[in-house]
């Protein structure tokens, strides 16, 4: 028997257990830097653009049109979504059976939710004042995100993901109650910043 195969010290055993636990968590829950941080960056940039457009008192803080702000937001969300899908595919490639099926159905739920919300917003937003139309787009999509993150946390019994969804729902609800400018500001700072922090902190914990 090779000398390295002799009984490990308690410290070496604990380190090996921790390494295996970390690898298992990454396989089941994905890389937090791929699943959280890109969304945070997208919302920080996109909703900051919307905040500069609306202002807190209805007076724009910068010459940014609603269309330009929404373009920044949805371009960022599209890129973040592509990165998240890559993370989910990478995660799904490392698991099989029921867990893999859950991941596939969860991915389809995201696609169906985004398409449905887009159709609803396109149909209803022209009938609303500009500020309320912006709230429909921003608040509606953030509500969808909150519910899907809570659902994902429930599916995989992963509390950090569930609490991220709860945080998103709380910030979104408060912002919608306060109006378009406040919603954009709170979402950019608290939700965008929160997702960036969550991705970094959860990755470090791994």
UniProtKB/TrEMBL annotation:
Keyword Transmembrane attributed: yes
UniProt keyword list: Membrane, Transmembrane, Transmembrane helix
Transmembrane segments: 33-56, 68-93, 105-122, 134-151, 158-178, 184-202
Protein name as it appears in the record: Transporter
Species name: Nonomuraea spiralis
């Amino acid at each position: 028997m090779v000398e390295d195969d002799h009984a490990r010290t308690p410290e070496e055993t604990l380190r090996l257990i921790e390494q295996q636990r970390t690898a298992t968590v990454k396989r089941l829950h994905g890389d937090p830097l791929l699943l959280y941080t890109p969304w945070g960056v997208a919302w920080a940039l996109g909703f900051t653009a919307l905040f500069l457009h609306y202002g807190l008192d209805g007076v724009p803080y910068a010459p940014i049109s609603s269309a330009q702000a929404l373009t920044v937001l949805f371009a960022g969300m599209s890129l973040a979504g592509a990165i998240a899908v890559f993370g989910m595919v990478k995660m799904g490639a490392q698991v099989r059976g029921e867990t893999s099926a859950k991941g596939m159905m969860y991915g389809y739920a995201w696609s169906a939710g985004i398409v449905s919300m887009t159709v609803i917003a396109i149909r209803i937003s022209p009938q609303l004042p500009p500020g309320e139309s912006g709230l429909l787009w921003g608040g509606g999509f953030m509500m969808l995100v909150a519910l899907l993150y809570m659902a994902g946390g429930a599916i995989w019994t992963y509390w950090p993901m569930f609490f991220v969804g709860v945080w998103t729902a709380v910030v979104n609800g408060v912002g919608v109650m306060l109006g378009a400018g406040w919603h954009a500001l709170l979402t950019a700072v608290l939700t965008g910043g929160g997702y960036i922090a969550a991705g970094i902190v959860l990755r470090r914990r791994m």
